């Protein structure tokens, strides 16, 4: 969940060099165009690009062109607002760039109260997806592997720092750390026991498991599979529509634009 201050939308208008409104954006993006002399300011809230663009932005999609309110799309609250990602980030981050770049459509302004209440039902949908795809939410296998050998060496090293250890036990412990040290370092290096102990104590207890399968990544890969040659992914489209539809049915957002549609294009138009 990303926290944003109330002024998420500044509602600046960007016109094409032919004078057609192309899209709305915030002050930051406007400054970007102006500072590079790519546009001229033509009104207090509008700029006109002074170069010909390839496409006309969102000229056919009213949702992008209308004024956006700095209100929770569900209850109309104007405070404690946050950006809500309609498609959870655990899936979104694994999607192709041409889908991810289009993400602003699926980022809606919501108050924290509505956001929290929706998250509960969103979790139910995630559980259902986990069953449908036969992939648990916390992934398949263990994310990390415990390194028992490192732990054994560290225990020996830390015991060597203690006083009052019987001599034969001391010999065993030294043997453990010296063997490890000899196997892992340059043979010619003649480290003192204290240095070896210090190095041993820094050994990690865990390492990342390369075999681990993340839930979000697995689900998205399944949705993309078989369609890479098309650069259009029908199953992925369905998945995004599923989340949009779930959001609309659950929250019945009274302050969301009537032009926000479940089946709006998921790809960036370039
Ligand atoms: Zn709200």
Layout of secondary structure:
Layout: E1 2-3, E2 12-15, E3 21-25, H1 27-35, E4 39-43, E5 46-49, H2 62-65, E6 81-85, H3 89-92, H4 97-100, E7 107-111, H5 112-132, E8 144-146, H6 148-160, H7 167-184, H8 193-201, E9 206-208, H9 215-224, H10 234-251
Parallel strand pairs: 2-5
Antiparallel strand pairs: 1-6, 2-3, 4-5, 6-7, 8-9
Helix pairs in contact: 5-10, 6-7, 6-8, 7-8
Explained architecture:
The chain is built from 10 helices and 9 strands. It folds into 3 domains: 62 residues, no CATH class; 124 residues, no CATH class; 65 residues, no CATH class. Strand 4 and strand 5 form a beta hairpin. It has a 4-stranded mixed sheet, with helices on one face. It has 270 residues and is of the alpha+beta class. The chain is 41% helix and 13% strand.
Let me know the largest β-sheet. 4 strands, mixed
Shape type: elongated
End-to-end CA span: 29 Å
Beta-strand residue fraction: 5-15%
Mean pLDDT: 85
Uncertain runs: 1-6
Concise overview:
This protein is of the alpha+beta class and 270 residues long. It has helices at residues 27-35, 62-65, 89-92, 97-100, 112-132, 148-160, 167-184, 193-201, 215-224, 234-251, and strands spanning 2-3, 12-15, 21-25, 39-43, 46-49, 81-85, 107-111, 144-146, 206-208.
Give me some keywords for this one:
alpha+beta; four-stranded mixed β-sheet; disordered N terminus; binds zinc ion; single chain; 270 residues; 3 domains; 9 strands; three-stranded antiparallel β-sheet
């Amino acid at each position: 969940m990303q926290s944003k201050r109330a002024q998420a939308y500044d509602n600046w208008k960007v016109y094409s060099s032919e004078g057609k409104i192309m899209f709305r954006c915030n002050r930051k993006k406007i400054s970007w165009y102006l500072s590079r002399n790519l546009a001229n300011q033509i009104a207090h809230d509008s700029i006109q690009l002074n170069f010909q663009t390839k496409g006309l932005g969102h000229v056919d999609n009213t949702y992008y062109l209308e004024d956006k309110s700095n209100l929770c799309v569900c209850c109309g609250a104007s405070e404690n607002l946050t950006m809500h990602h309609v498609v959870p980030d655990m899936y979104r981050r694994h999607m192709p760039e041409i889908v991810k770049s289009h993400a602003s459509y699926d980022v809606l302004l919501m108050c924290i109260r509505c956001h929290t209440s929706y998250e509960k039902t969103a979790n139910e949908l995630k559980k259902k997806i986990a069953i449908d795809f036969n992939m648990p939410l916390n992934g398949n296998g263990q994310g990390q592997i415990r390194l028992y050998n490192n732990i054994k060496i560290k225990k020996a090293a830390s015991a060597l720092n203690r006083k009052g250890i019987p001599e034969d036990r001391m010999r065993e412990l030294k043997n453990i750390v010296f063997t490890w040290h000899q196997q892992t370092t340059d043979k010619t290096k003649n480290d003192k026991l204290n240095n070896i102990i210090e190095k041993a104590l820094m050994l990690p207890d865990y390492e990342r498991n390369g075999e681990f399968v993340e839930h979000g990544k697995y689900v998205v890969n399944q949705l993309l599979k078989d369609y890479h040659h098309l650069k259009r992914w029908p199953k992925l489209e369905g998945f995004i529509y599923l989340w949009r539809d779930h959001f609309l049915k659950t929250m019945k957002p009274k302050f969301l634009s009537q032009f926000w549609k479940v089946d709006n294009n998921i790809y960036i138009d370039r």
